[in-house]
From TrEMBL, chains A, B, C, D, E, F:
Record SMART domains: ELFV_dehydrog
Gene: gdhB
Species of the source: Bacteroides stercoris
Protein name in the entry: NAD-specific glutamate dehydrogenase
Family label: Belongs to the Glu/Leu/Phe/Val dehydrogenases family.
Assigned GO CC terms: cytosol
A GO MF term: glutamate dehydrogenase (NAD+) activity
Enzyme nomenclature, EC number: 1.4.1.2
A GO biological-process term: glutamate biosynthetic process
Amino acid sequence: MRFCQAFMLELWRHLGPDMDVPAGDIGVGGREVGYMFGMYKKLTREFTGTFTGKGLEFGGSLVRPEATGFGGLYFVNQMLETKGIDIKGKTVAISGFGNVAWGAATKATQLGAKVITISGPDGYIYDPNGISGKKIDYMLELRASGNDIVAPYADEFPGSTFVPGKRPWEVKADIALPCATQNELNGEDAQHLIDNKVTCVGEISNMGCTPEAIDLFIENKIMYAPGKAVNAGGVATSGLEMSQNAMHLSWSAAEVDEKLHAIMHGIHAQCVKYGTEPDGYINYVKGANIAGFMKVAHAMMGQGII
Amino acid sequence: MRFCQAFMLELWRHLGPDMDVPAGDIGVGGREVGYMFGMYKKLTREFTGTFTGKGLEFGGSLVRPEATGFGGLYFVNQMLETKGIDIKGKTVAISGFGNVAWGAATKATQLGAKVITISGPDGYIYDPNGISGKKIDYMLELRASGNDIVAPYADEFPGSTFVPGKRPWEVKADIALPCATQNELNGEDAQHLIDNKVTCVGEISNMGCTPEAIDLFIENKIMYAPGKAVNAGGVATSGLEMSQNAMHLSWSAAEVDEKLHAIMHGIHAQCVKYGTEPDGYINYVKGANIAGFMKVAHAMMGQGII
Amino acid sequence: MRFCQAFMLELWRHLGPDMDVPAGDIGVGGREVGYMFGMYKKLTREFTGTFTGKGLEFGGSLVRPEATGFGGLYFVNQMLETKGIDIKGKTVAISGFGNVAWGAATKATQLGAKVITISGPDGYIYDPNGISGKKIDYMLELRASGNDIVAPYADEFPGSTFVPGKRPWEVKADIALPCATQNELNGEDAQHLIDNKVTCVGEISNMGCTPEAIDLFIENKIMYAPGKAVNAGGVATSGLEMSQNAMHLSWSAAEVDEKLHAIMHGIHAQCVKYGTEPDGYINYVKGANIAGFMKVAHAMMGQGII
Amino acid sequence: MRFCQAFMLELWRHLGPDMDVPAGDIGVGGREVGYMFGMYKKLTREFTGTFTGKGLEFGGSLVRPEATGFGGLYFVNQMLETKGIDIKGKTVAISGFGNVAWGAATKATQLGAKVITISGPDGYIYDPNGISGKKIDYMLELRASGNDIVAPYADEFPGSTFVPGKRPWEVKADIALPCATQNELNGEDAQHLIDNKVTCVGEISNMGCTPEAIDLFIENKIMYAPGKAVNAGGVATSGLEMSQNAMHLSWSAAEVDEKLHAIMHGIHAQCVKYGTEPDGYINYVKGANIAGFMKVAHAMMGQGII
Amino acid sequence: MRFCQAFMLELWRHLGPDMDVPAGDIGVGGREVGYMFGMYKKLTREFTGTFTGKGLEFGGSLVRPEATGFGGLYFVNQMLETKGIDIKGKTVAISGFGNVAWGAATKATQLGAKVITISGPDGYIYDPNGISGKKIDYMLELRASGNDIVAPYADEFPGSTFVPGKRPWEVKADIALPCATQNELNGEDAQHLIDNKVTCVGEISNMGCTPEAIDLFIENKIMYAPGKAVNAGGVATSGLEMSQNAMHLSWSAAEVDEKLHAIMHGIHAQCVKYGTEPDGYINYVKGANIAGFMKVAHAMMGQGII
Amino acid sequence: MRFCQAFMLELWRHLGPDMDVPAGDIGVGGREVGYMFGMYKKLTREFTGTFTGKGLEFGGSLVRPEATGFGGLYFVNQMLETKGIDIKGKTVAISGFGNVAWGAATKATQLGAKVITISGPDGYIYDPNGISGKKIDYMLELRASGNDIVAPYADEFPGSTFVPGKRPWEVKADIALPCATQNELNGEDAQHLIDNKVTCVGEISNMGCTPEAIDLFIENKIMYAPGKAVNAGGVATSGLEMSQNAMHLSWSAAEVDEKLHAIMHGIHAQCVKYGTEPDGYINYVKGANIAGFMKVAHAMMGQGII
């Protein structure tokens, strides 16, 4: 708390909703954002959307914690729909067991898919019956316990297996969603997935796939969504938090979710617009890069040489 | 007008949408708010939601006058639903015949209940046929006449009775709604209502019930909603007026009403969360107090020691 | 660009969302607004809705280009509905072939009417089969070509005729919509339309009708909407752009269109309120003037003598 | 007071020590400046030198009332010195009997000259014994009486004469100082002075000499100082009041007087620099005009085209 | 330091050179002022004269520590001169041995008087040879030692006596200057001084004399200067520190001393103006009270009713 | 001008009299400062001392151009006085022939010394009769001619010699003053001066002496003043310009010169305080370094850890 306050005492003049908007990241969660916001508010006497990820009691947004996972699934669903594939009944391999995995598993289940893996530093769980409902709640309990292991899941839910020291990418699944950490899916893992005829890979974790993995997916014409597109739901919901603050309103969870859905839909459409290749394959890496560049370039040129 | 302007000339630096937001109260209505807003705008050169209850031509919100009554009924309806009771066909005793009573009677009728009393300083009207439609319009006319009496109602509408010098709480009704002034429902009145098997009491006026009355309701496990919860619709709609100002928009009456409904629903849910007792009785006094305290406490703690 | 920047260097302190909000007009389009906004943002360090008609990449609103035409048709449709007339199947004579004509023709077609003329400086096109779909796209191409002529349309679409050097008001049509420039419909034109039993005239261009024309319409009890009411959709959508900026959000085209519709509906209702004459004829000129005056007058009086 | 306050309520944002600095003039004296300053301070919360001529208790400067007259004599003395003439023993004809005449007579006496006339609307006093000491005090009493006449002076001081309905310029004097009002010295008066071999004319009143008078002085090579130079002492001392405010200090009368002297010396030097003609005659009209123009022109050019 | 910083974090918005200017007092010296100024500067980014008594390296003024004592002697000297008495050779009884006593003894010696006592909590020193030069330095050493006693002086300087447990007012002296603490000179002490034919008493400490003492001095027509006049040198020099800050300059010690002298002279003149009684006795208590009241009253009235 | 304006358009928010104050340097003179000030004033609407070296017509200070040279001589004179040496009659070798050399030669002559050299890129002039009066004016003419040579001086003034391609340090002189550019006096030059028994060396140019030269001077106990002390007059006079701006006043040349003298005196005293070595030799390098460090260190510590 003292650190957050001292940090703000130096930085406050350089932050603002039209200037620079800090966000949480590894080691900076709602607690730290709250402390920084409190000090910022004391110094500026303004109650604005300069910070996002705030507590619900003072301007935070519903659905913010699940937003990255929810958004990821909306994007993946859109990828499949574009190719005429229904997500219903598809098997999904997820890595991680934290907030992102929680959101991804919850929304995947809502959309009718079956989540068959989660993972921790100790290995992964394979549950062919699907990880949903109370099982997801149990996953959150494991996370909150602070033990940082997923192994107990197998004891709790018969029919599931704990595979120690491995990543879930060796499991056959239609959809693979890295939701844990960077470089968690390398070239070898990619080859496993390709060999197992994976349909779609969504890199929901930040830089979850190594360059080798990405190259392999694209070479093999696998549907692959890079993090900069598929995990934009978190930042997007920070934007929605800013909107709610600007409006002096709080939206219901359903409203936030609906707007998040629309935003992911729009991002997907931009990727398709700029990433579709002559043979119909959608190179989402290329699409996301070009779409982002074009938006900034048009805005800069539109505002003149200043 | 001169007083409002001089007042603002002293106070303007200390008001603002993120600082302090004055509101009307007894003797300070739309006219005075307009004068204060005009002077504030002249001095600050800002057109913000610092004042609420403004005229519709310069930033005021539709439904603001009826908001307290509408919100009260949304809350009462929620109370009944929680216990599986349908408000349709229920009789409602209302006191008062001003803006609050107007909103309450209008919304009660819309929801299918039958309003059977209103009151003034001179006594109360008992109308077993129900006070709705043109009768409500007539009530507003009585109010606007400046005579401050309700007796003429009985002459206008055959089948209704004027009971001079009494309060309406002696009438048998399923729902009792004090909508007039403070301390208008004392211990004796409460006992009458209880004896007449009242189902639900909503204290829509500010501090309308005496402490004795409140104690009696709770002892007898009557559904009783304290003013701090059931009459929050007025302040809530001031908040919606601020939202509209922040958005540079005016919502339709339906939109305001819908948002007001959602807000009252949320307040009710908080009361239930914190006020439900082991035997299932919902102590709304306790619930509202704890919910309010928790929100402020969490916000303060979340923002650190500053 | 240099001019726009120098202009802002002088003017920036006197602009702001609560102060003065410049807008494009003849010769000042999205390009110039972008340059001015860029310089304004550099100087003020604020990203606000001070300018409207911005590029979509930096705060502009969808539907802004079509807004005047769309709004005009919503108004005209409301006029007809008020008199129990269905716009479906009605023939529409439109002048012009730019943004306004584009919006008007598109929305007219959507509402089920048949657009039978457009015009340019070289004359007008009469197309009894209706101008819709690809024909509208072709019209935009003609516009974008920079040749400023409509004659090629007749070559492109068999069944249509080019009438050189004339205005479209000699054609028999149920609805006449000047969408080009000022004074483009004079007394003689008005008489033609009246003789041809025109039902409704909407002056979507700024001051498109001469005073003589307007007098003739009113004398003959023709439904006539003056520009200050029927072409308010453009400015209204600038307001919606400001709202989106204030909310840090972008609405979908459907949302903007819906809100535009509601605004035009409200303007029409005000005209009817103040312009309906004893014989039932709605004098929209009178209605618009009085409604505008009343709004400003009430706001001024409501805010006191300051 | 109410007018001054209302005036400031409109104007306060546009005043400031680096922006615009109002000063008293006919009908706006210390009383009005005090009222305006009080309101300005209330609104801006700044205690700056935006107003000059303030009361001594709240930022006013000593010597401010006498400054115009003092400055005028410093200038005249400098004119004489430049030509090797000693002011000591010279006779001085002064018009007027207010603040300016007071300052002029006081300083003339201090410098060793003999003041032989003052005047009012009723005529002039000729006192060959010199108007100094108690006689000057008496003149101020006449002024303060509100009767606006100088005639009683002749009764009070034997040896002096009252000449009704005439101006003092018919008296033979070495130095003539118009200190009353505009156009108080016309061509005929100038001819009288020239015939009487006047040495030096200082137009201390604003535009006291008619164009004909000025032309005659210059043609006859009389030392003539235009008001824009010789009466700059008032505005100069307003500048010194601003300096004292900026320094949070009050200077003694001697300090103000010394600085005033230095400023008048500098202005005189500029006039000599730009107004000396080939024959040695100093055309102060030309000198003052060119010096003023050069200062502004150099400052503008030095700051670039902005 | 932490306390000073936290204090400023709360208070900074309410301080400023035109608003409120904190100053040191008992327990708040240069060290604390420095800490507060540092934090204030960090928060406001302004280097202004909001704090006085700052370190010399960052805006402090020379002579500030000695200012109260110096000013006191200038005032006392003026009192004597007014009655035609030369301070040279007069004996002076001083109490205390801190900053104020230091300044008083130093300036008294400079003016030619002989200081014969100083005092501490342990008693007083009587030195008939005069306390000056190295003896004053030694006094400062005693003070800085932290022992809070003056007794060692008698050992150090032969010819001087230490009188334990007593105040110096029993010594015969021409001038008595309380320079230590409040209520240090009571009625009994005053009677001693009067019996010993004291000429002048200057209450340089804050409220050093009891009401009984003051009444006795006035009854006996002793020249008595109350603290609000005679010890104004400290606050006056804070004002000079503000002036130096405003000017971005540091004055030499001689310049500060000269200005301090002029200020004390002016205060004395005001006391004489308002406090001189018909018999010629100058009641400085009355004079200081009336002068202060008149200044504030004139300033308030001059600025109008606001 | 365009560059200066564009530069200010980026930088203006980060400049201010309490923040950062730009100054001229090589290639940035009064012209550029004027352009920058003009743009800064346009943008900030403040007329403050943010820029120094401004034109005299808009806030510049008299003596600013000569200030470095004047200050240098005041310092050198102080050095000599400290050792009991009178500058009168001493010979002075100066390098350069620009503003700094001008100020140095002028003040040296005023103080009674005899300047015997000046120099340019083409060599140096040796004039044993002394360079003063009209000769200094001629030097300025040479400078203003743009030819950047001093050779013509020898033609103009018989008795002087032009030594091509050499520096003046080979001439025997009591005082050597590098006034041209960096590294203009190296070890070899220093040895020449030492061999010729130079008394005092003042490095008025920025870093005019090489490290070897400085070491030699100190080893040989020559009085040597480093640039950071001896050429501080330029920056000091910029500070005086800021003071004049803050006071809304312009000082006379004599006042500026006097204050400059006092400042240089103070800097010299600080060097002596911290640089005097046990044997009495004053190491000005050490003294200036320690004095500067101590001032900053005390100010930082005095303001606390912030």
